[in-house]
Amino acid sequence: MNNGNKTESTPKTLQTTGDLSSVLEKIRGVGRVAIYFHYSDGPEEKTESDVSFFQWTSDSKRNKEELIGILVVAEGASDKHIQNKLLTTISSVLQISPHRIVIEEMELEE
Prior knowledge:
Elements: H1 17-24, E1 33-39, H2 48-53, H3 59-62, E2 67-74, H4 80-94, E3 101-105
Parallel strand pairs: 2-3
Antiparallel strand pairs: 1-2
């Protein structure tokens, strides 16, 4: 019995900067987008105080590189409204603090 809902209709996760760029370019006023992810160098030796401070982090996350910053260069970034929309969208989608996201205006090619 099928009520029209598909179990395989789960949204596809964004796998690359190109995927995210192409989605952001569809937002009105954004224009072309280039994205650069900055990751930590990987697991580092942590002191006991660091371990207790970060105990909320799951073990699976400790073994992966952590996304620590994003640079977004967009054609429409000269508009403060577009900058704010990009900031809130990226922060929400990637679950990263807004202070770790930098948005700059793209130089227009002639």
